[in-house]
Amino acid sequence: MAISYGLPAPCSLLMATLLLLIVQAQSVTRHYNFNVQMANVTRLCGTKSIVTVNGEYPGPALLAREGDRVVVRVTNRVAHNRGTLWWHAHISWLRATVYGAIIILPKHGVPYPFAAPHKEVPVVFGEWWKADTEAVVRQALRTGGAPNISDAFTINGLPGPLYNCSAKDTFKLKVEPGKTYMLRLVNAALNDELFFSVANHTLTVVEVDAVYVKPFTVKTLIISPGQTTNVLLTAKPFHPKANFYMSAAPYSTIRPGTFDNTTVAGILEYQKPGSPSVPSFDKDLPLSKPALPRFNDTGFVTNFTSKLRSLATPQYPAAVPRGPPTKRSSQRP
Ligand SMILES: *[C@@H]1O[C@H](CO)[C@@H](O)[C@H](O)[C@H]1NC(C)=O
Ligand SMILES: *[C@@H]1O[C@H](CO)[C@@H](O)[C@H](O)[C@H]1NC(C)=O
Ligand SMILES: *[C@@H]1O[C@H](CO)[C@@H](O)[C@H](O)[C@H]1NC(C)=O
Ligand SMILES: *[C@@H]1O[C@H](CO)[C@@H](O)[C@H](O)[C@H]1NC(C)=O
Ligand SMILES: *[C@@H]1O[C@H](CO)[C@@H](O)[C@H](O)[C@H]1NC(C)=O
Ligand SMILES: *[C@@H]1O[C@H](CO)[C@@H](O)[C@H](O)[C@H]1NC(C)=O
Ligand SMILES: *[C@@H]1O[C@H](CO)[C@@H](O)[C@H](O)[C@H]1NC(C)=O
Ligand SMILES: [Cu+2]
Q1: Residue with more model confidence, 23 or 83
Q2: For ligand 4, atom 4, which residue shows the shortest CA distance?
Q3: Which residue numbers delimit the Plastocyanin-like domain (predicted)?
């Protein structure tokens, strides 16, 4: 840009360097240490142990000037840190695109409470608007109406073959016959609870929101926005000569037309038998599609959630209140 002022090149370079120095002199790096730790806090005449940062409640303020660099070193000192979680932006609707999985494996030498899967695969559901999402939320704020619904759901950012011009943007889960895969599902959609099913396969739910659950097997599961669910999927023992949709679609009790009622699909593909060193897959096999529940199937959702039980074995204890049994806890052993 300096060149456009007609300055000789070395001079413009010097100016650029000076400018950089000025910018660097003005912006600083601010370091913060966050120790995530328990603390006893007394409020309303009662004391309880809560999770805090640096023992402070609320936690410390992060102060920076626009242009600064902020380095936050987070040390987690509380128990039970493993599992599938996720991170996302919290300004306006940036979380429509600014999100990702956080995967915390158990400590070395600590096994899962189930046979170790052959592979682990993050499967992150999202929502896609063709419009600029900031424009969508601005319009909603201006008019006071509901924001426009999304145009598609995505699996790992990919809308897949059921949407216009998206076949090339399809998530593919490539499996070997007989092997077990752990899918770390994250629902990063902004608003929608989603049904999820893989055609001709079952899913064994083993963890929800980073807490082990008593395993149970379903053809379809439901996952709320913000929730995570780990499932085990065991591939068929032999190549099935078919490919399989893995689909997600919303659950909603509100009027059709007021939510995105589309279906996203990825494809489960089997490695061809007798594979050479480079595995090969056949994308032209017949495709099997799962039958998802009707969008408003509340009975299904109630059934599903009633199956969720903390694992609570001696090796993997759950922090269950140990007080005298209440009516509710005696009804639900
Ligand atoms: C909270 O209080 C309990 C009971 O007095 C004590 O055992 C525990 O160490 C305290 N925790 C912290 C973080 O100070
Ligand atoms: C929201 O949807 C309406 C109706 O389809 C459309 O006219 C409008 O441009 C959309 N708004 C944005 C921000 O995309
Ligand atoms: C998909 O493409 C077809 C053909 O171009 C068009 O008629 C239809 O409106 C498109 N659908 C969406 C949801 O954009
Ligand atoms: C998938 O399941 C459907 C319905 O149960 C069945 O008709 C079909 O044969 C199965 N396909 C494969 C490849 O297993
Ligand atoms: C989605 O809702 C619209 C509006 O109510 C309806 O026309 C369309 O058929 C629905 N699509 C699906 C896949 O349910
Ligand atoms: C689900 O929606 C359909 C069509 O809108 C309606 O006929 C049916 O009664 C609804 N079911 C429930 C359980 O609300
Ligand atoms: C709920 O589960 C029961 C028992 O497993 C089953 O008979 C029933 O059909 C299920 N209802 C729905 C709506 O899925
Ligand atoms: Cu959030």
Answers
A1: 83
A2: 200
A3: 35-80, 120-272
Q: How far is ligand 5, taken at its centre, from the CA of residue 256, in Å?
A: 7
| CA–CA distance, 273 with 118 (Å, rounded to integer) | 17
The CATH architecture of the domain made up of 75-305 is: Sandwich (2.60)
C-alpha distances out from residue 124 to 82, 235, 252, Å: 18, 20, 20
49 C-beta closer than 6 A to ligand 1: yes
Does this model's pTM top 0.90? Answer: no
Q: Provide the 3-class DSSP secondary structure of residue 30.
A: strand
Are 28 and 64 a contacting pair, CB within 8 Å?
no
Domain residue ranges of the chain, discontinuous segments joined by +: 75-305
pLDDT, tens only, 244-295: 999 999 999 998 889 999 999 999 999 988 766 778 888 889 999 999 999 9
Residue 131 confidence (pLDDT) above 80: yes
CA pair distance 263, 29, nearest whole angstrom: 45
Q: Residue 195's beta-bridge partner residues?
A: 222, 249
Contact 309, 320 (CB under 8 A): no
Residue 189 amino acid letter:
A
Residue 182 CB contacts under 8 Å (≥ 6 apart), including other chains: 117, 119, 120, 121, 206, 230, 231, 232, 233
pLDDT higher than 70, residue 320: no
Least confident of 6-10, 22-26, 96-100, 265-269: 6-10
Nearest alpha carbon, ligand 6 atom 10: 296
Mean pLDDT in the chain? 89
Per the rule left: phi > 0, alpha: psi between -120 and 50, beta: everything else, 328 is alpha
- For residue 197, the CA-to-ligand 1 centroid distance in Å is 45
